[in-house]
Amino acid sequence: MDILFSSLNYLVYSALAVFFLFVSLNSFRDGYTRAGRVAGLFSLLPALICFFFHGWSFFHLTGPVFLLILISVPIAGFRDKLLLPERRFDERDISFSRYRLKPGSENYTSYYGKNPEKEESDKRTRALPGLLAEKSRYFHRLNSVAADARFFLLNQLRNSVDGPVAKETGNNSTREIADYLYSTAIDDSVSIYGTASLKPEHCYSHVGRGAGQYGEEITVNHRYAIVLGSEMKPRITATAPMSPEVVETGRRYVDCAVWAVQTASFIRSLGYSARAHIDGNYQVIPPFVADEAGLGGFGWSNLFLTEKFGPRVRYSVVTTDLELPLPNKRKKIDFLSFCSICRKCATCCPSRAINPDSLEKLDSDRCFMYWNAVGTDCGKCLAVCPMGHPWGILKTLALRSMPAAWLLKKLDDLFYGKKPGSLPLPGWMETEK
Ligand code: SF4
Ligand code: SF4
Predict the structure, then answer these.
(1) Going by CA atoms, what residue is nearest to atom 5 of ligand 1?
(2) Is position 361 within any domain?
(3) Does residue 397 lie in a domain region?
(4) Of 99, 112, 236, 433, which residue is least crowded by CB atoms under 10 Å?
(5) What is the mean pLDDT of residues 38-64?
(6) Is the beta carbon of 267 within 6 A of some atom in ligand 2?
(7) Could you give the 3-state DSSP secondary structure of residue 430?
(8) DSSP for 271-323?
(9) CB–CB of 223/332 below 8 Å?
(10) pLDDT class of 82 with cuts at 50, 70, 90
(11) What is the DSSP string of 191-222?
(12) 122-133, pLDDT tens digit by residue?
């Protein structure tokens, strides 16, 4: 029996050393040098413990007991408390759409006639310097122009989301086409790929800023959707809310827009209707479709989180009538249980748009106002989220077990800081403003 415990004990300590080494190497790779150094030191800890305590009579029990504690208490279910929309969102209500309303115009008068409570705060937002603007707090000329260039390309792509459908469907089965699409996505380095059945509540109800007449009712007749996600680089995201963040946002929106426009065009050429939904021209709300596809779940920040990248992903969607294989009913990932002991996004949010005490809807107006003051899309809630850090298997455990969740939060605070500052701009961005 002692041999069994002693072998298991040394196995646990060796696994801990390997784990911290893995975290250290990945943290250095992602540009988190502080976390890399601390994790490197922690990787030596198991060897030191074994060296000092191996003669202690209960020592062989410590590893198995640690393992048992780590997986013993399942985390409380929080998922049911997340309110997915009961009715469709109106795109006219989102901050971006309201921001574009021209004072005195017919749309302006009509919108604020129905929503007078929003007019004053929207006026204050319009009075701020604005995204990428010269007078904004984190303005950086080259980064601002670089981000603008990416949004220029996105703007061109916005006109290519739909097109004519080939008359013939050809000999390929829908299964063959779907498999081909999946393999192409992997080959194109798409970070997140999923398929879902499309439901009315995944779609906006009326046009606010996308293609079509402002206020027009949106009808999406497609039954299927493909979700395409592009991971934002951790090193750049960690500069948030400074200017590199918005350049990275633009880059990732372009990535997934290109994938979506190509995918939709490919499907249409094979005789099935398809439309790409890309930044600035959505008829669907990508996080809802990603949730339906079982790719992750919502976090306290109201952002959509995946187990691999946390919130550091930008999405596009392709809707289609091509029949797609849907994932088997997977148990959806419950991030909110971990969030209930974490709430780091709320603590670190510079505009206090995320309520630390209750899982209420994010105050998106407050967040958007902050963007227009600093000139970037902030992204602090993406940068600090432990689910976006390279914790590997500990993330998987933390989403299922309470002691593991507690341990992950403590380690994340220790390695990255309770309120992490922004990483400096990469050297090649350090230019005269
Ligand atoms: S920072 Fe913490 S609380 Fe916020 S979304 Fe991420 S895991 Fe949840
Ligand atoms: S909610 Fe908005 S202001 Fe707050 S951290 Fe996230 S992006 Fe920044």
Answers:
(1) 299
(2) no
(3) no
(4) 433
(5) 90
(6) no
(7) coil
(8) T--EEEEBTTB-SB-HHHHHHHTTS-EE-TTS-EEBTTTBT-EEEEEEEESS-
(9) no
(10) low
(11) SEEEEEE--GGGB-SB-SSSSS-TTPBP----
(12) 999 999 999 999
Look at residue 313 in the predicted model and tell me its pLDDT: 98
Q: Is the pLDDT of residue 100 over 90?
A: yes
Q: Are 196 and 223 within one domain?
A: yes
Please tell me the total count of domains within the chain.
2
The arithmetic mean of pLDDT across residues 79-95, rounded, is 76
- Tell me if 270 sits within 8 A of 280, measured CB to CB: no
* Same domain, residue pair 269 and 328: yes
pTM of the model: 0.93
* Cβ of residue 343 lying under 6 Å from some atom of ligand 1: yes
Q: Which of 280, 304, 337 is the last residue of a domain?
A: 337
- Average pLDDT over every residue of 271-297: 95
Nearest to 344 by CA among 403, 414, 239: 414
Give the range of the structural domain holding residue 277, as residue numbers without chain letter: 79-337
Contact call for residues 97 and 211 (beta carbons, < 8 A): no
Domain boundary among 53, 72, 91: 72
Q: Tell me how far the alpha carbon of residue 198 lies from the centroid of ligand 1, in angstroms.
A: 27
Average pLDDT over residues 376-383: 97
Q: Angle CA(162)–CA(166)–CA(169) in degrees, nearest 5?
A: 125
Predicted confidence at residue 406, as pLDDT, reads 95
pLDDT of residue 83: 53
Which residues touch 410 (CB under 8 Å, ≥6 apart)? none
Instruction: Say yes or no: CB of residue 304 within 6 Å of ligand 1.
Output: no
Q: Return the closest-CA partner of residue 220 out of 268, 282, 272, 311.
A: 282
The answer as to whether 14 is a domain residue is yes
Judge if 119 and 227 occupy the same domain.
yes
Same-domain pairing of 119 and 65? no
Q: What is the mean pLDDT of residues 272-278?
A: 98
Position 394 in a domain? no
User: Would you say residue 81 has pLDDT above 90?
Assistant: no
Residues 56 and 198 in one domain: no
Calpha distance 125→128 (Å, rounded): 5
Say if ligand 1 is within 6 A of residue 209 CB.
Answer: no
Mean pLDDT within 2-9: 83
241 Cα nearest atom in ligand 2: 8
User: How far is ligand 1, taken at its centre, from the CA of residue 301, in Å?
Assistant: 6
47 with 158, same domain: the answer is no
Q: Is the CB of 354 under 6 A from ligand 2?
A: yes
pLDDT at 433 over 60: no
Index of the ligand 2 atom closest to the CA of residue 377: 7
Tens digits of residue pLDDT in 234-273: 999 999 999 999 999 999 999 999 999 999 999 999 999 9
